[in-house]
Amino acid sequence: MTSEHGQDGEPVAQESHELSDRQFAAVAKALADPRRFGILGEIAASEGALPCCALSDADKVSAATISHHIKELETSGLIATVRKGRFVELVFQRTTLDAYLRRLSRSLSPTS
Amino acid sequence: MTSEHGQDGEPVAQESHELSDRQFAAVAKALADPRRFGILGEIAASEGALPCCALSDADKVSAATISHHIKELETSGLIATVRKGRFVELVFQRTTLDAYLRRLSRSLSPTS
DNA sequence: TCGACGTTTAGACAATCGTCGAAATGTTGG
DNA sequence: CCAACATTTCGACGATTGTCTAAACGTCGA
User: Fold this and answer.
1) Where is the signal peptide (chains A, B) (predicted)?
2) For residue range B94-111, what is the model confidence (pLDDT) as tens digits?
């Protein structure tokens, strides 16, 4: 599953557009856990793609926990996943992060 | 105005510098709850200061809950509180938000 | 084919979280 | 002084979360 997880028919898009309220909340929540943020940082650093098992956290927590965090990052739109045989490539979605930063700035700016 | 109150003994006070790892995590967590983010938005909107009881959420949840969120926002450094008689003035700390945005951008940028 | 490997799912558990009501604290005005 | 008000603290509750183990799934190589 390389796409998203909308549940009420509202698709969770990852264009350079604005984030829906739901996706904005999902991104904020995804960034709130230090371990998850660390994983995201690693994915963002290795621009391109890397499999789950290459994450440095892979030997700090169980595979199930990694999978859980990956799913949450994907649901929020911060990363995309691409199956490559046995592996799953993790791709950072910078557009989502940028949209989050924009909305955060905008919705807390004095002229809002 | 740009320098924090010199001799108050207020807990969290930081310049427009970098956030510590702990404060970065605290800000991320503080922003992760929609209601708390809404409260922060209201505080940021009324640039200057407003008391807790003036928050629009004040009639949606109990006073205890408001107080809890206020404390979390204050602990993270996103707002400051100033007692004004019976009231507590809430002051948005834009420098903290800006520092958070900067660190978020920087730590997820390709050249990190 | 079969077994090893990467990943996901299911189920469970403790910790944390958002919320509440009630009581306490502190402050102002009559 | 006292009553009303703003806020905080306390203790509790259900929901969510991060984590685990065990099992299942899917894919490759020998």
Assistant:
1) none
2) 999 999 999 999 999 988
Domain A21-107 adopts which CATH fold? Arc Repressor Mutant, subunit A (1.10.10)
Residues of chain B predicted below pLDDT 70:
1-16
Whether B34 and chain A come into contact, CB under 8 Å, resolves to yes
CA angle B10, B15, B21 (to 5 degrees): 90
Q: CA angle, corner A21, sides to A18 and A22, nearest 5? A: 115
User: CB-based contacts with strand D under 7 Å?
Assistant: A 29, 32-33, 35-36, 61-65, 68-69, 72, 83, 85-86; B 51-53, 58, 63-64, 66-68, 70-71, 81, 86-88
Enter the pTM of the model. Answer: 0.87
A101/B contact by beta carbon, under 8 A = yes
Q: Could you tell me where the DSSP H helices lie in chain B?
A: 21-32, 34-45, 63-76, 94-107
Are A86 and A53 in contact, with CB atoms under 8 Å apart? no
Q: Sketch the domain layout of chain A as residue ranges.
A: 21-107
Per-10-residue mean pLDDT, chain A, length 112: 40 65 98 98 88 92 98 98 96 97 95 79
Write out the CATH class of domain B21-103: mainly alpha
